[in-house]
Predict the structure of Ribose transport system permease protein rbsC.
Amino acid sequence: MNMNTVARRVLRWIWGPNREGIVLTVLVVLALVMSAISPAFFTVSTLFSLLRSSIVPMIYALGVLLVIISGGIDVSFAAIASFASYATIVFQLGRGINIGLFGSFAMALTIGALLGLLNGYLISRFKLPTLIVTLGTQGIFQGFLLAYIGSRYIAQLPDGMASASTANIVSVETSTGVALLHSMIIPAIILAIAIALVLSRTMFGRAIYAIGGDTESAHRAGINVKRTQIWVYVIAGTLAATAGMVYMILGRSANPQELVGHELDIIAAVVLGGASIFGGRGSVRGTILGVLLVQLINNSLILIGVPSAWQRAAVGLLLVAGVGIQALAAKRGTRLLRSKNAHADHSNAAPQAVEG
C-alpha cells in the first residue's frame, strides 16, 4: 500500500459521511490546548474524571442515536430515565425489600421499555411528529412521577445498588491522591459494542438506516416501518432506564429532578458525532467521540472558571454549528446530484439528435 492510497483513505475517513475524523481532530487539539493552559489537565485523574462524566451521557446518546438515524427526535429519554430509576428505588425502600442489583436493573429496564413502547406506538400508529410526541410524554412522565411516586431526595439507596456505588475497576496512585475508574464504565462499553453490531451487522440495523433515509422507499422495499419504529423507541427507553440507574449508582443517591434538563448536551453530542438530524446517517464511533468532545468542553470551561450559563451557550452553539454544517453538506450534495443528472441527460440526448 503506497502513501497516496493511505492519504486517500485518511481523507475519506476525515471527510466521510460521518465526519468522525474532524471530531477526533478537534478533540485532540482541545486536549492539547487545555494541557498548555493548565498542566494539571493532562493527568490520570483528569482522564478518569472525563470517562466517569461520560458514562451516563454515552448510554443516553446510544438511544438517541438510534432515534435520530431513524429520522426522529427524542427529548423524553431523561424523563424516562428519572421515572424508571426513581420508581425502582422507591418501590424497594417503600416495601422494605431488596431485589439486588440485577433485579433492580431488570425492573427499571422493564419500566423504561414500556415507556419507550408508548412513544413508539403513538409515533408509528398515528404518524405524529416525533418531537411533539416525546415533548408531550416528557411532561407526562415527569409529572406523573412527581405527583404519584415521589419528589423527595433519597440519600440511601437499596443495598444491592449501594454496594455497586463503591465498585471501581482501576485504582492509580497519583501525586494528588488516588485516581479511580468506576465499574459502571463496563456496561457502557458493552452497550456501545452491542449497538454498533446491531447497526452494522443486522437487518434491523439496516432497516433503521433505510427508514431514516426515506420512509416510503423503505416501505416499498418490504420493511415493516411501524414495527421497526416501535422497537427503536423501546430500545431507546431501555437504554434511558439503564442510564438512569447508572446515574443513581454513581451519585449514591436518588433525586427525581436531577436528570431532566440536560437533553441538549446529548442531542448535540450525537449530531456533532456525525449523525444527520434529517435521518439515515450516524455511527456509534462518531457518537462516542461527540460525547467525549462535549464532556471535554464542559470540563475545560469549568477548569478555567467559566460560569455554567456560558457552558450551556457553548453547547448550544456547537449544536447549531453541527446542524448548519449538515444542512450545507446536504445542499451541496443536492447540487452535485442535479449537475450529474443534467450532464447525463445531455449526454443521452446528443446521440439521439444525430440519429434523427
